[in-house]
Amino acid sequence: MFKYIKTTGLCLSLITSLLSCYELKAEQIQSKTNTRTSEEIQETHNHTEEEKSHEQEEATHDEHAHENDDKEDEASHEEGLTLSPQKISLAKIQIESVTPKYQIIKIYAPGEIKANGYTSYVVSPRTESVIISRHAALGEHVEKDQKLVTLFSEAMAQAQADYLIASTEWQRVKQLGNKTVSESRLLQAETTFNASYGKLIALGLTEEAIDNISNKDIKAFGQYSLTAQREGVVLQDDFIQGQRVDAGDNVMLLADEKLLWVEAKVSPNKEIHVAIDSQAIVKFGSNSYNANVIQEAHTIDPNTRTRIIRLAVENTDDKLHSGMFVKVYFQFITNEKVIAVPEEALIRSTDGDWTVFVEEHPGEFKTVEVVLGRSFGNFREISGVESGTRIVTKGAFFVASEIAKGGFDPHNH
To answer: Where are the domains of the chain?
Structure first.
């Protein structure tokens, strides 16, 4: 029995030892498994980090490559265009250095040609009369003392008769002399003659017409002619034959059109102050004329609500006539020097900016954006370029088309 118990105890002891060994091995195996798992996780994490780093490097490389491509594109844009001297000559491209200069500012105002009031002459009877016949037509050029119109007047007939009587009496008394006629009678005859002569002059007769008064032509009594007092053109003849006219009525208007007036109508909102004798340009159609300011009104026309500035213009070619509408350009000098280029030198970009082509080196052109300022006729004030810059002033459109054909953006965008 004791032996059995001893044997059983030994077996239990061996079993316990074996279990302890198995537990120890299990713990070692579990530890190794955990260690391996951690290493795998760490290795996987490291691999992931390497992949991310590699992707970042590739992205960075692609970005650098893209930036390099952009730089290359920008460099291509900055390169612009290169033209040979032969091509520049064939395209008639003009390149000029721009420098600040005083410019002429032109201000427009509508105008109307008027007869020169200082050289015009109104033909009118000095007594109530009836028009018998005309001797000049509208628009006709007449010379001084040329007969214009013949009229009849009862007052003229009486004055002519009185003159004829007084002239005859004066001639008779003069021939008798002081020995036969008293001095008072001689003086009376002379005074009557002078008075009748003066009345005819006052009624508009010329000395030649008075000298031709005679008893032989009694039927002509009362008839008289109005003549041109100066050379000019008939601008008005508002009458018909047989019409009765009063003293002072306008029968004809004569004007010398060698020097005409231009009345420019300026808006009161425009602050234009012109000096007498200042220069202006008058345009009619394709013709231009130099004009001088002679008067400036200080009141507003109640009908047109404009201020009148009067100019004198020479009409040597006889193409300007009273009543024509013209364009008036007043000229002023800028207070400071500015850079201005011809309008054809400006090219508009696709985004609406204005540009010019600058020659950096002979035959090499690039686009430069500019800001527009005031207009000076066919020139435009610009800013954005320095004095001395060489700019394409003629042929800019050709340069732009050549840049476009080369695949470059002519506007650096």
So the answer is: 1-79, 81-100+337-405, 107-116+256-333, 127-252
